[in-house]
Amino acid sequence: MRWFVLAASAALIAGCQASPPAQTTVSFAASGGPTIIAPNSARVMPVAAGPVRQTPVGSTATSANTSVAVIGRTPPAVGRCGPAHQPVGGLAGRTVEVGSISDINLRKGEVVLTFDDGPRPATTPRVLAALSDAGVRATFFPVGRMARTYPKLLQEVARRGHTIGHHTDRHAWLSKMRFDDAMAEIAKGERAIARALSGSGAQAAPFFRFPYLAHTSALRKALAERGTVVVDVDIDSADYKRSSGAVVRQRTMGRLRRKGRGVVLFHDIHGRTASMLPGFLRDLKAGGFKVVHMVPRGGGGCAGRVG
Ligand SMILES: [Zn+2]
């Protein structure tokens, strides 16, 4: 069984790449876990979404109903939503209020970190620990089904002061759907996130990212009209590809150095991403970059109230 889980984990789980993977089709199973459909095969291979194989030392997150213990330095809790912002080591940059796409106007040397497709107990706590250790805040775009399965973990993301957007309910390929169906799928994902956070004191931000970055002008227009900000990607880490964390780190830094700034796409469901993140954050600091935290204009997001 181990070979199977490792092989599945090494494959693309649910990337946000702009073009479809050549060899793998991805869907989310009814159980809430991601599923990989292998090419030229009718077999559907469920991927272990829980921490059974990959639980990091110190993590006790085992199910949707289990309290979440996140490894690494735990910032002090302030208020109901999360910790006060405590920059560590000079990597944290501005907090930017975003009410429309035009507000995401980064200066040279500024980056925004985004993590899609979670939360996932095997990996998201490690991502949170790395971000806390570096004293920076990111934006997460969870999938509705994952949030339903692991609401406590999503609440922990918010408690740490990160911004939470949404990313559809089942990671749907919206550009291939009828307009009404696509909008319904977006709304379903948004409701799932809100429900997962309910009672925690945190609220999701009206930020959205298209799965596979597969957008249409009609959907973008409709989202803008309802006050939803579509957050695009400047630098794709391509962490959904089969490669080591070291390769992801090197590739992302290379792209970032060439562009000099930008919104970086990662996925908090991948082990390689969690593994390379501490080193990547050290690279950012060494390169003189600053991590900008996006919060919704006018509040409404947890981080926007405590930052
Ligand atoms: Zn995605």
Describe this structure in words.
The protein has 307 residues and is of the alpha/beta class. The chain has a single domain, classed as Alpha-Beta Barrel (TIM Barrel). Helix content is 32%, strand content 16%. The chain is built from 9 helices and 12 strands. It has helices at residues 2-10, 124-134, 144-149, 151-159, 179-197, 217-225, 245-259, 271-286, 302-306, and strands spanning 25-28, 34-37, 44-46, 92-98, 110-116, 139-141, 163-164, 207-208, 229-230, 235-236, 262-267, 290-296. Strands 4, 5, 6, 7, 10, 11 and 12 form a 7-stranded parallel beta sheet that branches. Strands 1-2-3 form a 3-stranded antiparallel beta sheet, with no helix packed on it. Strands 8-9 form a two-stranded parallel ribbon. Strand 8, helix 6 and strand 9 (229-230) form a beta-alpha-beta unit. The longest helix has 19 residues, at 179-197. Residues 1-84 and 302-307 have low confidence and may be disordered. Zinc ion (ZN) binds next to loops.
By helix and strand content, what is the structural category?
Answer: alpha/beta
**Strand count:** 12
The major β-sheet equals: 7 strands, parallel
Weakly predicted, low-confidence segments = 1-84, 302-307
Spell out the helices and strands N to C: HEEEEEHEHHEHEHEEHEHEH
Please tell me the CATH architecture by its name. Answer: Alpha-Beta Barrel
User: How many structural domains does the protein architecture include?
Assistant: 1
Radius of gyration: 18 Å
CATH superfamily, called what? Glycoside hydrolase/deacetylase
CATH top level?
Alpha Beta
CATH topology (level 3) name: TIM Barrel
Cofactors, ions and other ligands in the entry: zinc ion
